[in-house]
Amino acid sequence: MGLMIDLSRALRPYPVRAPASGISRRRSLWERLHLDPWLLGMLLVLMAAGLVVLYSASGQRLEAVIAQGIRFGVAFAVMFFLAQLTPATLLRWALPVYVLGVLLLVAVELVGDVGMGAQRWLVIPGVIRFQPSELMKLAVPLMVAAYLSRQELPPRLRDIAVCLVLIAVPVVLIAKQPDLGTSLLVTSAAVFVVLLAGLSWRFITALAVIAAAALPLLWANLHNYQRQRVLTFLDPNSDPLGSGWNIIQSTTAIGSGGVFGKGWLQGTQSQLEFLPERHTDFIVAVLGEEFGLVGIIAILLLYLLIISRGLWLAVGAQDTFGRLVAGSIILTFFIYVFVNVGMVSGILPVVGVPLPLVSYGGTSSVTLMAGFGILMAIHAHRRLLPR
Amino acid sequence: MRKNRDNLKSPEHELRIFRVRALLAVVLVFALTGLLMGRLAYLQVVQHDVYSTRSEKNRVRVEPLPPTRGLIYDRNGALLAENRPTYNLTLVRERVEDLDATLALLVDLLELPDEEAAAFRVRSRQRQRPFQPALLMSDLDEDQIARVSVNRHLLPGVEVEAQLLRYYPDAEVMTHALGYVGRINAEEMATLDTGRYAGTHFIGKTGVERFYEEELHGQAGLRKVETNARGRVLRELGRTDPVPGQHLTLTLDKQMQKLAYELMDGRRGSIVAIQPQTGEILAMVSAPGFDSNQFVTGIDVASYRGLQEDLDLPLYNRAIRGHYPPGSTIKPFLALAGLAEGVITPDRTINDPGFYQLPNDSRRYRNWLRWGHGRVDMERSIAVSNNTYYYSLAHDLGIDRIHDNMSAFGFGQRVGHDVFGESTALMPSRDWKRGRFNQPWYPGETLSVGIGQGYWQVTPLQLATATAVLANRGEWVKPRLASHIGDAPLPERVPETPPDIMIPNDTWWDRIFSGMEKVMTGSEGTARRTGVGLEYRMGGKSGTAQVFSLGQDQKYNAEELAERLRDHALFMAFAPLEDPQIAVSVIVENAGGGSTHAAHLARAMTDTWLLRDREPDVEELREAMEDDDGRVAGN
């Protein structure tokens, strides 16, 4: 009952004052486009670097690079579109999009298309092939932020309970598909919102203890292949030709690259196909083999710069909703990087998380750029609200 | 608690919380990124060498290049063992998408019976390492190769692989002299130099192939190749070429060998021909033979059982492992022993009443001619194969001196220089009998030995060798099968050649030869029918060996029993008398008809070797032999 009340509150229009028309200050081109030039510039550098590595990782197929370029184009369009929305619009749409997303997940569960051993895709033949779980990467944090921004912060026990329900419903549906990577990303995006909202340390400690206690339960509910991944992570040599193969080959690729790498297109692990999934989830191994420690650190520093800029924009956001959404988006971006590089270099179990904007693949690029679009929207529209 | 301040937003407070949390997040982000960088630095700097090596090992594969086995030629350059390209069907499991469909298609394409499909399935699962081809089928014919090749696009992972396989063009004729190669078994694998044999699947099992394995095999080479993860070779990084095995030229004469085998057609037995001055083995036949090519490709169980259970024992190399009582063929050697020991002279005679009696013993040891040959000297004793003369001689010599003198001719010894698997057979002695039966030697047993019976057993190779030494007037040569390795001739005198045989008067050799010539051409000669029309001077000696027992587990029908209980016919000969070019021993099992069978075969051999332009008519010879059957007595 309380839940219903709270949700209805979240639906209330955001108290946006009318734009102060006739402001004499001249707005720059970037401000009129609602884009952040620093963030945009760094993203472009990252994508360009990504395409260079992808050319090598795809077995020097120019078609793959072009296809990825086209996806980047689409992703940019989505980003640009979302950047034009006002935070008020985002707030208004948070609940409908969230509800729609959950319904689509249920639809996937019922009639979804099976791709690569998991039921993730929703297909309207001839029209669209769509992964509702990708939508949830943004819809869930938006929903949680929308809810919390209407509450007094830091959140109280009841708010946290509501948030847990809001997170758990889609995450369970996604985990059932099964898609461990996406459910992990959706969870962390939403949890970041709650953490940034000021979840008390007592709660954080308590949740950590509960999570630790729940580990055996989680283990019991994992799919066999997921368990195998964890076991393999603990000892890759236990199954060197099966699931340990990936991690053995990726650490070999990275380690053999040394400080300066073997040179672009010269990586034997990558070019001779020892490295599996080399142009998707394991692309950082190609980077490490061909460009060495120097190359990986350069990319990691670029990510750090992007994340720093993103957090800076989040802190500068006008209101709590914007701050929570922007912070969550940028920290989730970091989770992508950390989990991906961590698994490829063998310090985390293998979870299907791509290296953002470098790995080959359209869906994740679009979602990520959509996130940056929202980030920019929150940043660009703040001056419309005089303090 | 701020319960009563419900719904009252405090933007400043919220911003403060957010800033603290964001700062914490920044710290965490940098810390975790630092962790990643640390991990990467560990992999790429600290562990770089380890992973470099591993990556190199991934990429580079060392493939053995097996050497080509040396070819084997006869003395005239005719090919006896070659390497024939064969085509095998292999399958790499990892590269096949749908195994069942692929196997079904193969069975269909090759028009094989359905049972083969099951066998294919079993073989496709036999694999040692990933990406190693499993052998589905060997020795594809051209039609099958074509069918698989045309449909290659439907058969990923299936390859037709060329392999050189040993092939013996005249396997049945040559096998007991040549030996054969077979798959390396686990026992051999354990003792082999694996570097030299890398990539080689075959090794000499018997005969020349075994004895000269070292030279024939050569040295394996290797090549370093870059492969991708699917095991496909992309390029060669370096190679050491294999050193091919050396060709081997044998002393065997293919024509002589073929003739000997034809002469033995339908018979069991052996013919060995040696060139006396050099010890070169011209022919070494054990009949029946078998197709040794079956053993190269891998013989099936049924065929192998068939060969093993064949009553004619085709797998048994009679020439070097057959044990036969020599019978009267050893009389010239015993006469020489008598001369050497001073027990007889060529001219001293005995009177033969048809039997011999030991002092103080009433038992009569009979001559084969009941009424006796009367006055018999040494030459006549050989020509008519008189037994009484040799009973007396053996008694005078005693078993010890017989043993020593006969051992000097190689009886009871391995005589061959490069003959693999030779048996010593048996030259009995007092010591041997005590060791074997824990019994003393009886004088009567010496008399049996005196006519080549009793415990004495020889191999056809021993008999031919002793004949060659005799023809050389006592000069020893060890019989040998190989003359050249590559282009280099092997040394003529081989190590461990026994000492030459001396007698007090060298002209006595001529007296022995004369006795042997009378065997062929004398009016009383036991092989006088064989000697008709000789165009050169030939010496020989016939022999008959009694078959005394059959193995208990052998089952014969009455007719076969009768046939297999008949005596063995033996003959030894050399020619020409004044300058011996060939020494022959012939043993025909259960020939029955005394000397004639074996003697005819021996003359066919000497005729062919000495009168090269004349091809003997084997059919005619056979008819002559049938005619002679039983008409000439003697042994």
Based on secondary structure, the structural category of chain A is mainly alpha
- Identify the CATH architecture of the largest domain in chain B: 3-Layer(aba) Sandwich
Order the strands across the largest sheet of chain A as they lie in space: 1-2-3
Q: Helical region count of chain B?
A: 23
Rounded to the nearest angstrom, the distance between the terminal CA atoms of chain A is 36 Å
Q: Could you tell me the number of beta strands of chain A?
A: 3
Distance between the termini of chain B: 133 Å
Largest interface: A-B, 51 and 48 residues
Which secondary-structure class do the elements of chain B indicate? alpha+beta
Envelope shape of chain B: elongated
Question: Which homologous superfamily in CATH is the superfamily of the largest domain in chain B?
Answer: DD-peptidase/beta-lactamase superfamily
Give the biggest beta sheet of chain A.
3 strands, antiparallel
* Beta-strand residue fraction of chain A: under 5%
Oligomeric state as shown: heterodimer
Named CATH topology of the largest domain in chain B: Beta-lactamase
What does it look like?
The complex is a heterodimer of chains A (387) and B (635). With 387 residues, chain A is mainly α. Chain A has helices at 2-11, 29-33, 37-57, 62-83, 87-111, 132-149, 157-175, 180-196, 201-221, 224-234, 244-257, 268-271, 283-315, 320-344, 362-380; strands at residues 113-115, 118-124, 128-130. Chain A has one domain (33-380). Chain A contains 15 helices and three strands. Chain A has a three-stranded antiparallel sheet with strand order 1-2-3, covered by helices on one side. The radius of gyration of chain A is 21 Å and the shape is globular. The model of chain A is unreliable at 1-5 and 10-24 (pLDDT under 50). Chain B has 635 residues and is an alpha+beta fold. Chain B has two domains: 61-250, Penicillin-binding protein 2a (Domain 2); 254-291 and 319-628, DD-peptidase/beta-lactamase superfamily (Beta-lactamase, 3-Layer(aba) Sandwich), CATH 3.40.710.10. Chain B is built from 23 helices and 23 strands. In chain B, strand 19 and strand 20 form a beta hairpin. In chain B, helix 14 crosses helix 16 (387-408), helix 14 runs antiparallel to helix 20 and helix 16 crosses helix 18. The longest helix of chain B is centred in the N-terminal third of the chain and has 36 residues, at 11-46. Chain B starts with 10 loop residues before the first helix and ends in a 7-residue tail after the last helix. The interface between A and B is large, with 51 and 48 residues.
